[in-house]
Amino acid sequence: MPSSYAAAAAGSSSRKPNRTSSAAAPTLRPPAPSPSPAPAPLAVNPSVISDSDPSSYSSSSADEADFAASDSATASVVSAYLSVAGEGADLSKVGIFLSSAARRRSPPCLICFDPIRPSDPVWSCSSSCFAILHLPCIQSWAHQSASGPAVPCPTWGCPKCRFAYPKSEIPSSYVCFCSKTIDPAPDPWILPHSCGDVCGRRLDANLDSGCEHTCLLLCHPGPCPPCPAVVPKATCFCGVHREPRRCAHQRYSCGGKCNKRLSCGLHHCPVDCHDGPCPPCAVLGSHKCECGEILEEKLCSERIFQCKRECGGMLDCGKHKCERGCHGGKCGECPLRGRRTCPCGKKNYPRLECDAEAATCGSTCEKVLGCGRHRCPERCHRGPCDGTCRLVVTKACRCGGLKKEVPCYQELTCERKCQRLRNCGRHACKRRCCAGDCPPCSETCDKKLRCGNHKCLSPCHRGACSPCPLMKTISCACGKTCFEVPCGTEKNQKPPKCSKKCNIPRLCRHKLECRPHKCHYGACPPCKLICGEEFPCGHTCKERCHGPISPPNSEFTLKPTKKKMGKHIECTPGTPCPPCKEVVLVSCFGQHLGQERTMPCCKWRPFPCENLCGNPLLCGNHYCTKSCHVLEVPLNHPEGDRTTSISKVNALAMPCEQCNLPCQRVREPPCSHPCPLPCHLNDCPSCKVLVKRPCHCGAMVHAFECVFYNNLNAKDQIKIRSCGGPCHRKLPNCPHLCSEVCHPGVCPSVDQCMKKVNTRCACSTLKQEWRCQDVLKEYRKSGRDPKEVPKSQFGVGLLACGEDCKKKLKAPDSELHLRKSQENKIPAVEVVNAPKRRKRRDRGQEVKISKFQEVKTFVLRALLIILLSIIVAAGLYLLWKGIFWLSDWMNEMEEQRASQRYPRGAML
């Protein structure tokens, strides 16, 4: 034994204080400190859990405490082993049993199904299953199994693995796992049912392996781990290579050719270094059969073979042929040589040849017949005796209930059915004429096993049925993590915790964002992220994700029904996003500033305000005077991302009124003529109207294009308007005309007219020629305004009257007096005969009218009045009808406008 291995064994045994085998109550004490560092906890594959651990599924704090206790207990058991084998040693097999035994929740007994407590006496199977059972249960089980029908070597089997133990090995005492300590006391600091000492069992029970090491673990359940000792010169299978190896793996393959001589003795093994005997030689060749008659192509390992022909060789007598099949060597002696007798064997023929037939002796045959009691009564004969013994004897049936004389060969049976119970104690024999040796019960037990799931399939038997040997596998949803429990104990089990990721893909839009969760049964946890789906309005959904849900795993069920197994679970469709509840600022129909309202985005709808539209008309000069109405919203509008809503609004859009006014723009250059075009936005065209402008003196009229005339400056306009002739305008202070060339403004010679004027006295007798300017001066001196002097009187009265004037005035007065006196002397008759004056135009004339004409006139007036009355009545009626028609038309137009403004309301 290596020194390190022995030191580890000694150290592990020194850590354990001396214990007594008495069942005294244990005292709680902490484990003794170890001089070496504490080994790492036992690494057990998390996907393989104990087959007898019912608590491996739990995720509660108690289960976590169980795992912690299991780790500390197993670490103390395997510390010595790991110090020799290293941290990477394979303890997967024993680790399952260690973790199961260290749990607080005890595994159940396979016989009684009650939990095995640490203080209960137990028995452990030492074969391959290492099941732990209650000691009283296994004792009762073994005694019942071994006390069956009488057999030479009664045995009893393990309830789990059915390994057969002899009756002498029925357990009689409670021993620890390593069988060193009887009645081990329960100790909370070590594994239950363990003595706490080093196991010490031989690691390899095969004596041919050469391993003489013992187990270094503390007393433990389950199989011992592989031997960790190091063999310095371990030989490979073919015996060529040698290298240091662990004792448990000292037999290995070097990877080279085996090259051992095969059983044929001709060829070498071509297989890589292997364990066990070499395979048969597979080299092909032509070989003869044993008799040498047939040549066939056979494998070297099959070169010795026999054909299907008879040998046919002559025996040593030289008279008979060999009747054996193909064989090697000599055919041998003739079987007819030697001592010869008659057929019944009473008479000998010592010198009879092998080819001569022996004669009968003539006496009675007397060979024992098939019945075994009588002899053949025939004479000596060749061939077998007649197997039917016809001697009449008195026979009893097998059950003894009937006696009768019958031929000896005939079997006598009665019709009585055996009523004795068979060995099962449940069913009657019911065999006809039974001799008392009732056969074992051939029926199936068919009792319900204690597992409650299966029936006993063994032949019908006495006592309790064997426990159900099946194991139930309880796995997670993905099946990668599982554990096995005895059938019947799975009812209280829960699925194990699986560390693998759930393989159900999410169907919502967050499948790349959600954190993966662990394997589970049932539905996946709901997605808790914000939906984030973009609405047509441009906002995003802020509700929790409500997309489609993947089909869930089936719920954990130990016995799924056919209905559930065939049920196809489909994915749950997602719900649509709720209406957008983002608060937005909505403008009125006319997009008026200051009239906005806040409302949820889902209720986004423009509204009419109380203002006029005010939208610029197409003319660009005037504004719409309609009440606030729907305008067409462009897609690049700040709210234009609501494509659906805006398209609906645009469908209801009402055009602004059309501008029917004439153009009211001021032309450039300004003129008084209106633009002939309707109201427009661009500049007005040039004015081509002919403008009539008189010359300065008013003698003639010029015609100019308005644009031409207005584009001239003031000097050019004065110049172009001049006619070039004399002014001919009357001077304001005198009756003469201006003598200047046609000019604008006041004539320059107003007070300096040089024309001659005839001045007269008051009576117009005296006459003189003055210059006009002198006349004006004279008028101003006398205090008179020249403008007030009539043209006919201009210059009259400026001269003083002389003597001639006075004489001239007296003569007209005398002539007037004479004319009046003559008119008074004319008689009145002459007045009558005087010529008539013409009557005034406005003086009326009296006309005489007849009565017929008066009646006719009255009738015509009456008819005219009646006709006018009818026309007035018809007009009033039509006016009344027209007013009602106009009112209905206005109502229809109002409804159409309302339906165009609010289409949803109209639809509702």
Keywords:
908 residues; three-stranded mixed beta sheet; 13 helices; rod-shaped; disordered N terminus; disordered C terminus; transmembrane; DNA-binding transcription factor activity, RNA polymerase II-specific
What does this structure look like?
This protein is of the alpha+beta class. Among the domains are: 3-24 and 36-197, no CATH class; 661-725, no CATH class; 744-809, no CATH class. 20% of the residues lie in helices and 10% in strands. The chain contains 13 helices and 22 strands. It has helices spanning 3-15, 61-85, 92-101, 135-146, 562-565, 643-651, 706-710, 714-721, 772-781, 803-824, 829-832, 851-901, 903-907; strands at residues 48-49, 122-124, 132-134, 155-157, 164-166, 230-235, 242-246, 284-288, 295-299, 340-341, 348-349, 392-396, 403-407, 471-475, 482-486, 583-586, 597-600, 690-694, 701-705, 756-761, 767-771, 796-799. The strands form 10 sheets. It has a 3-stranded mixed beta sheet with strand order 1-15-14, with no helix packed on it. The longest helix has 51 residues, at 851-901. It is rod-shaped, with a radius of gyration of 74 Å. The two termini are 100 Å apart. 19% of the residues are buried. Residues 1-62 are annotated as: Disordered. It holds the Pfam family zf-NF-X1. Residues 109-162 form the RING-type domain. Belongs to the NFX1 family.
